[in-house]
Design brief:
The complex is a heterodimer of chains A (about 240) and B (about 350). With about 240 residues, chain A is an alpha/beta fold. Chain A contains nine helices and ten strands. In chain B, strands 2-1-3-4-5 form a five-stranded mixed β-sheet, covered by helices on one side. In chain B, strand 3 and strand 4 form a beta hairpin. Chain B is elongated, with a radius of gyration of 24 Å. Classes of the chains: A alpha/beta (about 240), B alpha/beta (about 350).
Amino acid sequence: MKNAISIDGIAKGFQQKKVIQPLSLNIEKGGIFGLLGPSGCGKTTLIKMIVGLIKPDAGKVTVLDHEVPNEALLMDVGYMAQSDALYTELTGAENLEFFAKLYRFSKKERRERIQYAAEIVQLTNDLNVRVAHYSGGMKRRLSLAVALIQNPEILILDEPTVGIDPLLKQSIWEELERLRNEDEKTIIITTHVMGEAERCDKLAMLREGEIIAAGTPEALKTQFAAETLDDVFLRIGGGLK
Amino acid sequence: MRIASLVTRITQQMRRDRRTLALFFLAPLLILTLMYFIFDTEASDLKIVVTGSDETIVKALKQADFQVTAAEEFSREKMIEKDTDGWLHVENGKMKLTLLNDEPTRAKAVQMQMMQGLQGNEKNTPSIEEKYVYGDANTKGFDTFSPMLVSFFVFFFVFLIAGIALLKERTSGTLERLLATPIKRYEIVAGYVIGYGLFALIQTIIVVLYAVNVLDIVLVGSIWLVLLTNILVALVALSLGTLLSSFATSEFQMVQFIPLVIVPQVFFTGIFPLDGMSDWLQKIGKVMPLYYASDAMNGIMYKGFTFNEVLLDLLILLAFAIVFITINIISLKKYRAL
């Protein structure tokens, strides 16, 4: 099993609009895979189809050799949505506890997992504060902690660093890299920030529901004779001639 | 355990939301008290049966706007069976009036009209011995419809609060996040049913105890049967509320269901007499959960019905709940195919 995720000719439309053109993509095990593209290009739709929250109109998605949707897979995939899906009346700890329980951890395991996840996102000291009093960045971090709670093999993060200050962004990236290097996790993130894209091992550029380019950041730059990823994007998109 | 974690979470959320909690528990008491002081109704089409009497009395009563039937013999059981408002028995010049008193306003109207009707016939006011099938001379109109009010409050608040809670879960994305965990769809619905069911149970206990002890409303039957009925009402309200919340995109749209779903049901709870309604209108009432809830509650609290006597109503309520819960579980498929 070389591929963590393989996408085979999936397409999705909402009403008249085609959001995802038929596209295929393989994501190797281990490593950070970046889905890059402007807002509205179908990143979130694509990601939700991988998680199994949206059913594709055509084609199929295979994750860890199981065709999506598959119940066992939900244990192996940690998902962080674009909007913070948290219960604001509850404290950070209560949110984590709630999700941990859904994965059927024992009490001892739960305590360990909550502690671990909170440490990664540096929320240990704020765990007993209600989420309603959290800042935007803190909510984002708690959402990431929720995605990490069951120690999944694959992490799927939809714009994980939006609204997070540069210092914390740096530490989250370091943690993602550590998860890749030490725990050999497969991490898929979406972003529209080119600076973050540079740190991914592999990239796929998405535009209007189509993959317009894929490869390592270096290969993309060489292929399109561009200095930065920004330029690559503009070149393909027809902005730069 | 997943269901339990959902129940815990709902309890925590509700406890933190003090205002909703206060609304849930105290608003029913406020409205119940207000209605206790305000309500009054009128009666029409009074049916009475006369036994052992001569033509003159029957004629006099017909003139007094009664639907009079003269019969050889009659009984209390037949009164219940045929829904007769009054039974006048004349023997050796003495009059004995038995009142059904299923609605005290009707009983009072029978008394008043009979006095007026007979006065024109006799020289002096006749003396009539009175008996009651349900309740007694002190029964107030409020006693008969307050049982329905208890169910109504349970239905109204559970419908609204559970509906809005699931709506919030939908719009904030937590429902989607929840479905990205291995939780099963039925576990979500069961968690909601048990979580809000607990609060509905507490609400019912408070409302019933207040109605019986403070407002002095009649409770002839078993309080456990009252609780059982209202748990079923809560189940129906909860499952219907969460179901309809998928057709709403905001809390405001959820509130818009009140005139569409809640208010029409009130018309069929017996607060307004059902007998006066035309047949097709009565048929509409039979598709409404509150119609059966009211029937059962009125039976238990006022008429002292036993479990077997309200069993049919309870079964219909249970059927409503099962159907709605099933549709709920299926409709979550929209978010996750599993």
